[in-house]
Amino acid sequence: MTTALRLARRGLGNVWPNPAVGCVIVSGGPEKRVLGRGWTQPGGRPHSETVALDQARARFGSAALVGATAYVTLEPCSHLGRTPPCADALITARVARVVVACGDPDARVAGRGIARLRDAGIEVDTDVCRAEAEDINVGFLTRVGEGRPMVALKTATTSDGRIATRTGASQWITGAAARRHAHLLRAQHDAIAVGIGTAEADDPSLTCRLPGMEGRSPVRVVFDSQLRISLESELVKTATDVQTWVLSAAKTDKERRKALEGAGVMVVPIEDVVDGQPEPGAALRALGAMGVTRLMVEGGARLSTGLLRAGLVDRLLWFRAPSLIGGDGLPPFGDLGVGDVSEMPTFKPLSLTPVGDDTLEIFARVP
Fold first, then answer.
1. Per residue in 30-46, is it b (16+ CB within 10 Å) or e — as a string?
2. What pTM value is reported for the model?
3. CA separation (Å) from 349 to 19, 51, 204, 346?
4. How far apart (Å, rounded) are the C-alpha atoms in residues 148 and 138?
5. Quick check: helix, strand or coil at residue 316?
6. Nearest-CA neighbor of 264 among 276, 246, 277?
7. One of 31, 49, 214, 298 is an active-site residue; which one?
8. What are the tens digits of pLDDT across the range 51-76?
9. Sign of CA dihedral 113, 117, 120, 124
10. DSSP state of 223
């Protein structure tokens, strides 16, 4: 199952709106030979079980699958979509046992896949490495359960939590290794978001620029209620190459919207606007309805603060440099409205990874 989990991670950011799933098929008998391995392919099809079964047949023939064990990180689907149900594929292959890490809460599955396997006489074990599997698919689970993507807030600060000096100078607080790792994180998310202030101030491209991974750039999302983004911005000029969505107020200048759409930008109207920006919850639900399961937020302070105040940040991706700026430096977040320590947004540490001279700390929100 550990191997299947590693395989599942290969699909992160590349399979939405589907979950990222891994599968390993091991032969029956005393030799326990790996027959096939698979993970969900780009766009969500084919599923990991199909890939692993096809690989096993190509390498060893269909007979080798009889009596085998399949390790799958998510309950096999039981509904007919663009491909036949994976539960049926495992039954047809005549495997003897299926080990499942976690169930699929999708109403079209939700236990039916496991039931179908058991009804066919296949032994099914569940909840093996369940926590690890749920962590991999926290975005899919959040979208199914709450109708919105998982939100990962990324920031890069000094050790005393400053993103820039008092004059606004910030390049570069973290080192080259941390910046490269941030591009890897982009590739592992379906979409990346900034506020219009950051889009105007930095004119970012928000792409994955790691060698060999240029095609893994996420959808770029700008929170821009009044469609202020420039037609000459890097985001708009490259919108025909990398998907670019602008979340705006429902009523905006029609000619401005037409110009952006003519440049390849998708304008997504949000009915609810608060303080001049799309209301965070409504905006996230709109992204969820469009299939986004994993959203990484890179700036700026206004957008990050709004999401934190609304309790909508699920992960913190915090790059911390071994340097100090002091109290006159700029913080990553604004006023969170905390009057008592009991009101603080609370997170638990998940991992701490050295990245060059810097450190990446990942935290999960405590419900």
1. eeeeebbbbbbbeebeb
2. 0.93
3. 24, 35, 29, 10
4. 11
5. strand
6. 246
7. 49
8. 999 999 999 999 999 999 999 999 99
9. negative
10. E
